[in-house]
Structure formats: structure tokens, C-alpha cells
Amino acid sequence: MIQYKNNSEVELIRDNCMLVNNAIAHIASLIKPGVSTLELNDIVDQFIRDHGAIPSFKNYHGFPFACCMSVNDAIVHGFPTKEELKEGDIVSVDCGAFKNGFHSDTAYTFALANIDDGLKQLLRVTKESLYKGIEKAIVGNRVGDIAFAIQEHTEKKHGYGIVRELVGHGLGRELHEDPQVPNYGKRGSGIKLQDGLVIAIEPMINMGSKDVYNDEDGWTIRTKDGKPSAHFEHSVCVRKNKADILSSFSAIEIAEKSNTNLCSDY
Ligand code: MG
Ligand code: MG
Fold this sequence. Notes:
Layout: H1 7-28, H2 37-50, E1 54-55, E2 67-71, E3 74-76, E4 90-95, E5 97-99, E6 102-103, E7 106-111, H3 117-135, H4 143-158, E8 161-162, E9 168-170, E10 177-181, E11 198-201, E12 204-206, E13 212-214, E14 221-223, E15 229-231, E16 234-237, E17 244-245, H5 250-258
Antiparallel strand pairs: 1-5, 2-4, 3-14, 4-7, 5-6, 8-12, 9-10, 9-11, 11-16, 12-15, 13-14, 16-17
Bound molecules: magnesium ion (2 copies).
One magnesium ion binds next to loops.
């Protein structure tokens, strides 16, 4: 069942989104070769708790960390590890915060300089597709319109693989609520979008084929062909004429630009 949010509930979710965006921006300033994703996870975990919230992902169905950290061929749900990041890696940082009864959910993929043009394009197109999906998250459209916009830009235009097993979702008192928001689908299909629907839109786009497998850790989802995958996620509220993006990449992108260990010109 879909839970529509009133304005004050939307503002609580926005606050939680901002907290996570600031946490991710903080680690954007710290990422460099030699740092491990586990160190970054622990910083985010502490940052969220220092601001009076609880990491949404920790203990979610037994997930043991505050963040999903998915490196290179890992698409989503990656475990932070002690392995040191190195030049040319891309790492998706996915995180949520729970406070005042509501969750947030945001993800951003960082690239440790220097990445090749193919990888730059994957990041750029995946991020663009997120905003193309968000453009369709308005009252009167259907979930399929969001899905179609993402699929058009990534799979049809650029030949990338769209993960079928994992989708965006409603968000609120639960981390994952109805409806599902796939990154592929038919225009005009699915439920009608109504005012106050809060959803996480999150294209997971593979450089190669759409096929995936589950790592032996039971959580990490990887590309079957071993090629890299990118992931960007915003929490948005459906409104008339224009979606309200509750999360923001602004602080993250500023930190990314000023960190010379990261590639930001893609
Ligand atoms: Mg997420
Ligand atoms: Mg999500």
C-alpha cells in the first residue's frame, strides 16, 4: 500500500536527506588512493550518529554497515572492506539516515582519478538518466514514465545494461515502501503518480550486460561480465509540474571538485 506524505513529513525526510548528503560530501573530501571503504563507512556512521540520527542501512535485514560501498564491478549493496582504494576505481556510496520516524536514501558514485573516457561517459550518462527520470516524477504521470526515460537514455541511446533485479522504491517510515520504481519499462504503464508520493529514484547502470550475480558475502551484487557499474540516487517528492528533489548533490559535487584525487570532469 502506498503511503502519501503530508508537507511536514516531507520536510522531515528532507532533513534526513541533507544529513546524508553532508555525510557523503564529508567523505568526498577524504577519498583518495590508500583509504579503505571501511574507514569511510565508519566516518559516515559516526557523522550520522553525531547528528542525532541512526544509519538506516545498519541491521536492515541484517546488513552490517552504515553504507553500501560498491567498487567497480560491484553494482550495489557492497560491503565496506579494509581493501585500499586505488587510482582508477569507481565507488558507489549509498547511505540513509533515520530520524524523527523517517528514512532518507541517497547514492553517489565517485571516481578516483584517472579514469578513461568510457568510464567518464558511464558516470555522466547514469547521472543524467537520474535527472531525466526525476523530470517525469510529476502528478499525473505514471511510474512507467520515469522508467522509460531512464531506459531511453542509458540502454537505448548508449547501449548500457540496466539491472533488472533491483529497482527504486517508495520511502518514508520504512526504507523500502511501495511502489517499486524500475529503471526500465513502458511509457504510460504502472501506477499513477500523486502529490506527496516520496520515492527513491536510482538508476543502476552497467557498462556491459545487464546480467548480475550475488557475491558469496550474500549481499554484494556484481556484474556478471566483470565490467563496471554506476549508481546515483535521489529521494524525491512527486509534485504538480515539477518534482521536489529532497536530497542534493551540491555539497558533494563541491567537495568532489576540490579533491584532486577525484575525477569530476565527466
Ligand atoms: Mg540507496
Ligand atoms: Mg534506494
